[in-house]
Amino acid sequence: MNAEIIAIGSELLLGATVDTNSAYLARHLAAAGINLYRKAVVGDNTERIAAMVREALERVDLVICTGGLGPTVDDVTREGVALALGRELEFHEALLEQIAARFAAMNRTMSPSNRQQAYLPAGARAIENPRGTAPAFLVEDARGTVIVLPGVPHEMRYLFEHAVLPYLRNERGISSVILVKTLHAVGLGESVIGEMVADLMQAENPTLGISAKQARYELRIGARAESQAEAEALVAQAEATIRERLGSNLIGDEPLAAQVVRMLAEQQQTLTIYEGTLMAPIYRALSATPNGLAHVRGVLIHPLDRPTDEHAAASLALAGAISAADRWRSDLGLAVQASSTSDERGFTAVSVALCTPTGMRQATRKYDLNQPEGWEFVGTLALDLLHEYLNPNTTASM
């Protein structure tokens, strides 16, 4: 079965509300072995909703809509779906009684406008909503099935788990599994990684995709099978191949910061941070990770007080790592220092240095620090240097 998700609501298009429903549905459809072709967002407009549902049914046999089932004049999902399927809306007295009972249970007076929630496209199957006043519904058509759920997240999740999944399994025979595993890599560019695993990225099952996030790379393996065990075997086979090709640049299924924090704990190492900038990229990266500062003894923030070139920045990073480690008597000192000037392309040289009981390690790279993610790249560079030291098997190129 192939599916599309349509999130309905003008507030989603305006950015006033974040569409978390589609992400939830995407994860659970994958777990149920259903291929998701597309996700889309449309405003509260009958004709546009109808057009989007029609287009989706030309590609897939399952369309799941969320939102637009309320009692106000802009809640037109029912009308849009009915128009897409060429059906009239029919009034259901039993649904109105359920809605009224819901209001009575909440000790509230039902508004006359709630009556519109008792209308469904002709032939639709109502899905009772014990968590809210908006009944959901599904319509089976020659082109496919359209399922419409409320936009309120907790109502949508409840109905998907307690009504939609049982329907898909018991009546549509969905029994396969899609398993996704994410691996993390550092030390190589996205294009280099892509070339090393190009053949895996072209395979149909399992699939492999790569995404880049501030010099950290996620490799997502997806496998479809008739059982969990078969899917796990396919993922394991792909993972083994990736590990063989990427070697120590593949750091595993933990994000870089989380892995560094875990390794500090396991090795009982303490860390002190020297930040030569108010942007404090190392501190920010670790503080965004659970227990990220548990083994950090101190943080010294010392912005530049005079112009500094690339060579001087490297020296300051080394001195900063040593002085920070000595000041707090920590096992390790990790420092970052950027030069005060940029080259003709707008790139700034940044040095990171690590003071260890056995010596010093250092790396220098150039980044566009005018970009919002520029300092996040610096944080990754510093943590990669620390990871290289904590993991003796790592030979990642800095």
From TrEMBL:
<comment type="similarity">
    <text>Belongs to the CinA family.</text>
</comment>
<dbReference type="InterPro" id="IPR008135">
    <property type="entry name" value="Competence-induced_CinA"/>
</dbReference>
<dbReference type="Pfam" id="PF18146">
    <property type="entry name" value="CinA_KH"/>
</dbReference>
<dbReference type="InterPro" id="IPR036425">
    <property type="entry name" value="MoaB/Mog-like_dom_sf"/>
</dbReference>
<dbReference type="InterPro" id="IPR050101">
    <property type="entry name" value="CinA"/>
</dbReference>
<dbReference type="InterPro" id="IPR001453">
    <property type="entry name" value="MoaB/Mog_dom"/>
</dbReference>
<feature type="domain" description="MoaB/Mog">
    <location>
        <begin position="4"/>
        <end position="170"/>
    </location>
</feature>
<protein>
    <recommendedName>
        <fullName>CinA-like protein</fullName>
    </recommendedName>
</protein>
<dbReference type="InterPro" id="IPR041424">
    <property type="entry name" value="CinA_KH"/>
</dbReference>
<dbReference type="Pfam" id="PF00994">
    <property type="entry name" value="MoCF_biosynth"/>
</dbReference>
